[in-house]
Amino acid sequence: MPVKTLTIDGKPVSAVEGQTVLEAAQDAGISIPTLCHLDGVSDVGACRLCLVEVAGVSRLLPACVTKVTEEMEVRTESERLKRYRRMILELLFAERNHVCAVCVSNGRCELQNLAVAQGMDHVRFAYRFPPYEVDITHRMFGMDHNRCVLCSRCVRVCWFIEGAATKNVAGRGADARIITDLSQPWGESETCTSCGKCVQACPTGAKFHKGSTVAEMERDRSRLEYIVTAREKKQWIV
Amino acid sequence: MDRLTFATVWLGGCSGCHMSFLDLDEWLVDLADMVEIVYSPIIDRKEYPENVAVCLIEGAVANEDNLEQVKLIRARTRLLISFGDCAVTGNVTAMRNPLRTAEPVLQRAYLDTANLRPRIPQARGIVPPLLDQVLPVHEVVPVDYFLPGCPPPADRIRTLLRDVIAGKGSLLSGENIRFG
Amino acid sequence: MDLADLLEIKEKELRTRKPIRLRCCLAAGCVSSNGQAVKESLDKAVQEAGLADEVEVRQVGCMRLCCEGPLVAVDPAGILYQKVAPEDAASIVAALKGGETQVKRGDLNHPFFTKQMSIVLENSGEIDPERIESYIAADGYQALNDALVEMKPKEVIDAILQSGLRGRGGAGYPTGLKWATVAKMQGSKKYVICNADEGDPGAFMDRSVLESDPHRLLEGMAIAAYAVGADQGFIYVRAEYPLAISRLHTAIKQAKQHGLLGSGVLEAAFTFNVEIRIGAGAFVCGEETALMASIEGERGTPRPRPPFPAERGLYAGPTLINNVETLANVPSIVRKGADWFAGIGTEKSKGTKVFALAGKITNTGLIEVPMGTSLRTIVEEMGAGAPDGNQVKAVQTGGPSGGCLPASQLDTPVDYESLQQLGSIMGSGGMIVMDQTTNMVDVARFFMEFCMDESCGKCTPCRAGTVQLHALLDRILRRQATARDLELLEELCDLVKHTSLCGLGQTAPNPVLSTLRFFRNEYLELLQPEIGAPAAFGTPPKPDVNPTG
After folding, report:
1. Could you tell me if A185 lies within 8 Å of chain C, comparing CB atoms?
2. Which of C31, C41, C353, C514 could form a disulfide with C423 if both were Cys (CB 3.0 to 4.6 A apart)?
C-alpha cells in the first residue's frame, strides 16, 4: 500500500494512499471539527465545518472527502477557518429551534460541544423559529425536527449500514427535512426495522429514545462501530 | 478606589439567573466592595439610573415594557452583559416564537385552561402587551459581553465579573460558554 | 446515409424551394404572442391568393427581436414584419404582389441586427426546426461527416483546443481541455451530456437554440462523442421548455431515421444514441454533479468535486458535460476550421456569445455578438437603451451567480476576464438591464430570494446562509438595519462564497457583493442609527484573547 507523507499544522504525518485528510489527521491525533462525518458511513462534505487550508490550493477543502497527496501541506487552524466555523455554527443554531436548556441531548450534543469548542458565545443572526413538528408515532423512538441539523447521518446509516432505506431527505433549501419512507409518520413505516441506528447516529437531540427527558439521551456509538467493523473486517469484534 | 455602578435587570426570564447570582454566596461580599448596586430586582429602586458602568441583563425581550427598558438601559449603561440563555438566545422564553404571534399563548394560558373568569388581562400602562416575537437582547441593542447558561453557574458569573470589573473585558471560553 | 446522400438531400431541398418565402417565427416568444395563428392565416391567405406555387410559408425558429413578435420575414425581399396579427395575413400576401400593407416593418439596418454575428444562431430564424432536410440544406451534418470520415478523434479535440472555445455555461473552462481529459480516461462506457437546464431568471439563449436549431445540438454532441469515445448521450432539459423538448424529440427521431444517430452513423464505425431527460424544476440540477445524480434517478444534489465528471461521472463512467451553446458552436468550428473561429473575439475569449436582452431595455430579444463587444454597444446601440426616456443604471449579467455593473462601466468589453474583474461573470448569457427607478438593494434581495429558494439544502452555508443573507437584505430594505447588520451581511457573503459546496452557493453572494461595490450608498442610505452606550463612556474594552477553549 503506497504511503503518502504530508504535513498537518506543520506536523509531519504519514498516511496511506486513499485516506482522507480527516483520517490522516485523526490518526495523528489532530482534531478537526466535523458534524456530518460519521465513522463507517460514506462522507458527503455537507456541513463544511472540516474545511481546511491546503498550500497551493486557493479554495478551502473539506477534510472528510479530500484525499491525501504527497507533500501536501494542510492547515486545520487559522483565524479565517475559526471565523468560518463559528459562523457556520451560528447559522445552524439560528436555523431551527435549538433550546439546549430543555433538550434531551443537553450536555452530550455534538452541536453544543462544537459551539463550546469554537468559542461561539452567541448567535449574531436572527433566529428563524420555524414551526416544526415532533414525530413520536414510532413505538421506541422520536424525531424532533426542531433539533435537526440535516447532517444526513441517520439517512446514511439507514441506507448503508442497516440497508433499510427508510430515512431520506425531502424538500429543498431551508425546507429540506428528514422523512420516513414517502414522508409518512415514522410509526407507520413498513420498511423501518426499528434497529435504532439512526438514533445512535444523530449528533443532536433530533432523534431520541422515547422516555428520555432533558439531558438524559445517551448514545452508544460503539454499537455502530461494532457493525461497521464486522462489515469491513468480517469479524464480530468491538 | 471608587466603586463601579452596577445593575442587574430581569426581563422575560424565570429569575433563575438571579438565583444563580445569589449563589455567589460569600463572594457577594467581595463584590460589594468593588461595585455599588444601583439597580436590581434585589434592591428597592424604581427607575434605572444614568451612568451605570456594568449591567447584567437577564431574560429575553418579550413585551413592550422589556423593549422600552432595554433601549433605556443601553443608553444609560457602559457595559451591557447578556446574562443567561434567555438574554443570549431567547431560550425558553422564545419557545412561543414558532407560533408567530402571542395570541395562541394568551389563549392557552388565560382562556383554554382557566376555570374561573377566563379573560385575557388587558390594562394599558399596567400589563405590558406581549411582543409577537421574543427577541434576544442583542437583536434589539448592541451587547458587549455574553454570559450563556441556563442558568450560568455562579462560578461562571464570578469569572466574568472579575475580568469585567478589572477592565479586561470578557475572557469566557471553553465550558464557560456552554448553552443550556 | 453518407456524404452523397446528404448532398442529395441538400440539393433537393434547395431545388424545391419556392421563389418567395415567408418565414414565421415559431419559437416560444412568438408562439406565446399568437404566432401559430399568424402562420396558419398566412398559409390560408397564400392559398386564397392562388400563390401556393410561388410562395412558401415556413415555420422557423427565433428571429431575435422578441419584443416585436410575432415576427414574419419575407425572402428575398428582405422585409421583417413586426407584431403581426392573424388579420394582417391578407395584406402581407397582397404586398408580395405590389399591394399595400400597414403592418409595422422592422428596420433591418438597426444596430440590433447589423452588429450581430451568427455562429450559434446562424440557422435560427432561417430553417424549419422540425425538418431535418432544412438543416441539411444549411450544410447540416457535414461537420459530423468531416469528423467521422476525415479526422481522428484526437484531431477533432485538437481543433476544438486550437479554436479557443470555452464553456458557455458560465465558468468558461476551455472546452478542448475538457474533451481531452475525457478522451484520455480509460473506461468502456463514456457519456456525453448536454446541459440544457437553463434556469437563470431572464435567460432564454439555450431555449432558443433548442427550439430553432435542434439538429445543430445533436450534431455537436455526436462530434463530441466521437472525439471522446462515448456512445451514449443525454440531453438534460428543463420541463418548463415543452416546445424545445418536443422539437428535440422530433430531431432525434429524424436523425435516427436518417442514420445520423444510432449505430453506424454516416456508415462509419461509430455508434451514438441520445436520450432526453427532463428536469423537474430544480435550478441546482444545472450544476453538473446534481444534474448527473438527477439523470441517475437520485435526489438532485451536488457532491464534492473531485472526482470531476471527466474521471467519474454519470453511472461512475467518464463523462463530458457541455452546455447547449458550447456544443452548438462545435459543428461550425469543425466545418469552418479552428483558425476561423479563433480569429473571432478577443485574445482569451474566442468566438461569439449569445445574450438574452431583458429588463428595462427597448429592444428585448436575443443577440449574438463577437466576444469583446462592449456592454455599451449591446445596451445602448443594439438594445436602444432604456425605454420611455429613462436612463440605464446597471446591467446584470450572469443571473443569480453574476453581478450588477453600473452604467459607468458600460465600456467593459464582454469577455470572461473583464466581467470577472468587475465582480460579475459572463454566465450563460442572461443580461438584465435596469434603469434609474430600480433600487439595487432590492435587486440583490430578488436574486438572493432566488438562490434561497433554489438551494438544495445539502450544505450549511448555502442552505442557512442564503436565508440569513435574504433576511439581512430584507431588514435593510425595511429600514430596520444598522451598521452592525451591514457588517454581518458582508461577513456572511464571504462565508457563503468561500465555504459552499457547489457553484450555486459559491456565487450566490455575487449580486450582493457587486451592488455593494458599485452602489454602496444605496445600502448606507437605508441604515438606521444604533442605540449605543452613552458617548461619555467611550468604547468598551475588547478582550485581547479570542475566547476559544
Report:
1. no
2. C514
